[in-house]
Amino acid sequence: MAEIKSHEFDRFAEKAHELYRVFVIYGPDRGLVSERAALLARKTGIAQEDPFATLKLDVSDLQSDPGRLLDEVNSLGLFGDKKLVWLRNAANEKAVVDALAVLAEGSPPANTLIIEAGDLKKGSGLRKIAEPAKTIAITPCYPDDIKALNALIDTLLAEDGLSISPAARHQLLDLLGGDRVASRNEVRKLALYCRGRGMVEEEDVTAIIGDASSVSPDEAVDAVLTGDLAALRHALQKIETSRTPVFLVLQSCLKQFQMMELMRTEMDDKKVQASQVMMTLGRHIHFKRKPLIERALERWRTEALSREGHRLQSAILQSRQRQSLEQSIAFQTLMAIALQSARQQR
């Protein structure tokens, strides 16, 4: 097993490419996933600005050509040099899982493959293949703990010759931690604001820092289900600021509506209450979200859930086909469904 613990990663990265050619980086902290993938890419020594040496793919690029990933990893560069293949936004898609299964069974490829994935559940396709494989390195990326956040604050402020008061540190810690890139950007913004002062005070944090403490699609999904338009706008703004792909919100919302449609069908077929279905089909749902899902099940009918599921599928397809309009498509779709949720409560 080549599972690299989060606290071991920095040391591992120094010699990673002497040991492995295939890397899977996953977790709920999308900023940390991107940061670690970028570090591994730099350590390869392969020129990232050279389009013949580095190929960056989105998982949507594999939809029309499922075998492309394996072909690219096994093909030589234009001049016979090694290549870096960098895949983003993976989430147990069949094309990725199938390619990884082939790579896990064979000898290490000549080229390097880095896969950035979302929050993969234990036992899911990519983890099931990568974790026991001896030729694949896999590492999780979870939100920073207090120790890591303090180190991040001290390092970034020290670059501008700044210290921070205990009260300001306490307030700042409450606003960071959900996403590494978002946290880093917020601290850098604070350092720029306070440059030349020597000390960061509590009022400086209040004046300049936003909330990067929790960037999760669940927050937006829950706002859609409750019909809370203000909360949805706030959640989408946080997601955009953290550079988390808004596609993940559409995908999470679709999965939630599909699950609710299945649960609502069970309620109708067996003439049972939402609370009873939650004890069976809803066992995997986090306990904090269960009351919200139960209330939504009581309001929504199967036909309506199916209709909104189709709306989300259409939006996902449009966002992949017209990526320049992805933000607009997602915003309009989620707002429309949230409005339907609000009407359900009247």
TrEMBL record:
Keywords: DNA replication, DNA-directed DNA polymerase, Nucleotidyltransferase, Transferase. This is DNA polymerase III subunit delta. Its EC number is 2.7.7.7. Residues 23-118 form the DNA polymerase III delta N-terminal domain. It holds the Pfam family DNA_pol3_delta. It catalyses: DNA(n) + a 2'-deoxyribonucleoside 5'-triphosphate = DNA(n+1) + diphosphate. Gene3D superfamilies: 1.10.8.60, 1.20.272.10, P-loop containing nucleotide triphosphate hydrolases (3.40.50.300). The keyword Nucleotidyltransferase applies. Belongs to the DNA polymerase HolA subunit family.
